[in-house]
Amino acid sequence: MLNLRIYQDIEKEKMTEQTHALTFEIKRRISNTLARSGTIATPHGEIQTPAYIGAATAATMKTLTNAEINELGAQSILSNTYHLMLRPGADLLAKAGGIHRFMNYDKPIYTDSGGFQVFSLGMAYKKGLDATSHTTKGSAENAVMSAEQLTKVDKEGVWFKSHLNGDKIFMTPEYSMELQHQIAADVHMAFDELTSPLAGREQIKSALDTTHAWAERSLRRHVELNAVHLDKGEPLQALFGVVQGAREEDFRRESAAFLGGLTLEDGAQFDGFGIGGTFQPEELPDVLTWINATLPEDKPRHLLGMGAQPADLFLGVEFGCDTFDCVAPTRQARNGALFTYDGRINITNKRFEADFTPIDVACDCYTCQNHTKAYLRHLFKANEVTGMVLASIHNERFVVKTVEDIRQKLNESDTAFWAYKRDFLVQYYGEERARDFLYTSPAAWQ
Ligand SMILES: [Zn+2]
Questions:
Q1: Distance, CA 366 to ligand 1 centroid (Å)?
Q2: Single pTM value for the model
């Protein structure tokens, strides 16, 4: 209890001089790419970018304590509005004094709007119930949802059913903002409409128009809620607009230009931008170029839910994303799939039975400093929870460290960045496969 009290005093002290919810400063760029490094400052501290933001969906990075999260070097975490509104409820988080106090985590926290989960997990009304209103069927013939899971969208908002208890909930952009302000993270995402990877242009355009109308409504409500925080002397919260438009160049550019230029009568704008959508990794260079070459340069960009491969980290950075989150490192860890600089291994493999070396001798994480592959394999084989904890620590540290190294090289020089990328990918994937990730790499690759 003592620690908690001290933390709250420190928090109060930090807040007193706040005038902006978020600032972003660019430090260095890589020539002929969209890559840049910089610093995002929030009421709960700074994030040196590019940065990997650990997934803490339900206000916890699965299996890890805050002490472990801090020790592995995470600068920030991302929690999910949909999950928190259903359990434990945004009211409870508000009562606790916000998510930072609830989980006693004092670094910057992002929340996503819940849009993706409303459309993918929310058990929605069936088609037949929606005879009258304008319905965007874009999500219907969707890889993510079955017909029974149809989420009903109209211009006002979206009806969905809780995947936990079947409660029917009407989510609007304003309601998403109210929930996110109750949760009180540092960075929120505007509520958007998900488009199916299989949707046609007409459906994508319809969802995009809805997303843009909702973005403006999100921003309006957000500004009102921040005014209340200011009155009460509470920390201001930042809002990112979410760029959609699937894999269509004109829609992506339109979305980035619309959200990037959106300004309310009082001058309010988005503090940064999220990049939403479902992609194959090979589509990302084009899509990210359309978006990030169009968005205002001076605001941070967050890639929502990126791929599970180390190559994706380089891709995100090279194509102009400042932060990105991913559930894969902890999810894979819980399945025994571990990153090493020589590629991914499965720790349950027989060949590790009597292997008394660390997962990776080059890794500085707690697990690699203290335990062997043989011990970890034993824990997984015996279904011991500690195995998942140690594996999660390692995978998260591996990703955090890789992005730390990318950032350091980016700040050093263009040559250092390209050389690090080449060496890392060749060691991880082998010379031939690594060439799949050339993208804009200069001749220095060879
Ligand atoms: Zn390790």
A1: 7
A2: 0.90
